[in-house]
């Protein structure tokens, strides 16, 4: 996931490798009426309310929508298996000087995890360029499958961000927000550890994105930390997407949760994540409408790309929250803060 490099996170329950043994009912929101253009204004408002409530309480929900056929799902995950089965020397050729854009291979801290990225996969030609890099003679099944899921993820991302902006009464900022957002699609594989002992697949982290939407196969592993510090195993369904909200843009009104991947057994977990982030040079600033005495300013204005560059310099300690260390408002700043000073 984009932005997983931050402080080592522990909670009273974090010594337990597995999530809660008692299933916790996490929100599942159906977007099919919107996707099929069959909704009424009341439907939109109802779904928007569900989104707001889920992100306030959990910072997370599962989203379902029409058009996810079994044939499509089989083709997609078969294509991902084909990609990650390429020789290591081939995958290592996917390099980039931009954080999180190149191939990330197995590491001592995450030996089961590897991933690759396709910037702006919703833009015509980007998926084909990625495909042709690995298969010079083309791979139509791979490119069609990835382009199809990218279109669905991109559509869902825009709908959810629009609902968030409306629910926070930020309509006047809508165009600015939408126009200054870019996307990164990451495809990932978590190798099964061949043991019933739970092994870390992805370290506990809060996404530094605006919004993250995941689509994965039915191999379990994703866990979410509740506000009470309990790790909850997220039910896997091939018919739904997993949505996480980032921490900076809502000034704490929406809950950005810690989450991780814990793997058992011998089956591989495949996932695709669409991550929406601010464009380079755009200054992310908490809107004045979200700041008052009850909700003091949490983050100073910042450039997301500059934050990522700073993150990779190693200047932020391993036990620090990266975003808070970079642009968090200090207590001394809060004592003199007023809305007029934030402009």
TrEMBL record:
Stretches for region Disordered: 1-22
Entry keyword Electron transport: no
GO MF, any single term: 2-oxoglutarate-dependent dioxygenase activity
Listed Polar residues bias regions: 7-22
Family matches, as Gene3D superfamilies: B-lactam Antibiotic, Isopenicillin N Synthase, Chain (2.60.120.330)
Ranges for domain Fe2OG dioxygenase: 181-278
PANTHER family in the cross-refs: 2-OXOGLUTARATE (2OG) AND FE(II)-DEPENDENT OXYGENASE SUPERFAMILY PROTEIN-RELATED (PTHR47990)
InterPro entries: DIOX_N, IPNS-like_FE2OG_OXY, IPNS-like_sf, Iron_ascorbate_oxido_reductase, Oxoglu/Fe-dep_dioxygenase_dom
Protein's UniProt name: Fe2OG dioxygenase domain-containing protein
SUPFAM superfamilies with a match to the protein in the record: Clavaminate synthase-like
The family this protein is said to belong to: Belongs to the iron/ascorbate-dependent oxidoreductase family.
Assigned keywords, A-Z: Iron, Metal-binding, Oxidoreductase
Organism name: Lactuca sativa
One Pfam family this sequence matches: 2OG-FeII_Oxy
Superkingdom of the source species: Eukaryota
């Amino acid at each position: 996931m984009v932005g997983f490099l931050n402080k080592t996170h522990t909670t009273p329950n974090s010594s337990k490798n597995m999530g809660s043994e008692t299933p916790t009912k996490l929100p599942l929101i159906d977007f099919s009426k919107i996707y099929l253009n069959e909704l009424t204004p009341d439907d939109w408002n109802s779904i928007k309310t569900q989104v707001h409530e889920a992100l306030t309480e959990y910072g997370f929900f599962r989203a379902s929508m029409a058009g996810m056929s079994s044939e499509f799902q089989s083709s997609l995950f078969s294509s991902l298996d084909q990609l990650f089965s390429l020789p290591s020397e081939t995958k290592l050729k996917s390099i980039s000087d931009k954080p999180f854009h190149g191939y990330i291979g197995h590491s001592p801290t995450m030996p089961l995890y590897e991933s690759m990225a396709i910037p702006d996969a919703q833009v015509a030609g980007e998926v084909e360029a990625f495909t042709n890099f690995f298969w010079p003679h083309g791979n139509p099944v791979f490119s069609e499958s990835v382009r199809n899921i990218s279109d669905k993820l991109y559509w869902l991302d825009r709908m959810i961000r629009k609902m968030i902006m409306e629910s926070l009464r930020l309509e006047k900022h809508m165009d600015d927000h939408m126009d200054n957002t870019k996307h990164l699609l990451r495809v990932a594989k978590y190798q099964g550890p061949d043991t019933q002992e739970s092994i870390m697949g992805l370290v506990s982290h809060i996404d530094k994105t605006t919004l993250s939407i995941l689509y994965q196969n039915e191999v379990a592993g994703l866990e979410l930390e509740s506000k009470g510090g309990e790790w909850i195993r997220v039910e896997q369904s091939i018919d739904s997407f997993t949505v996480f909200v980032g921490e900076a843009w809502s000034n704490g009104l929406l809950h950005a949760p810690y989450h991780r991947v814990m793997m058992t057994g011998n089956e591989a977990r495949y996932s695709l994540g669409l991550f929406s982030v601010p464009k380079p040079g755009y200054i992310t600033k908490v809107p004045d409408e979200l700041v008052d005495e009850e909700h003091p300013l949490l983050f100073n204005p910042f450039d997301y790309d500059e934050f990522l560059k700073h993150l990779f310099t190693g200047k932020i300690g391993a036990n620090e929250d990266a975003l808070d260390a970079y642009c968090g408002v200090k207590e001394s700043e809060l004592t003199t803060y007023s809305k007029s000073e934030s402009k």
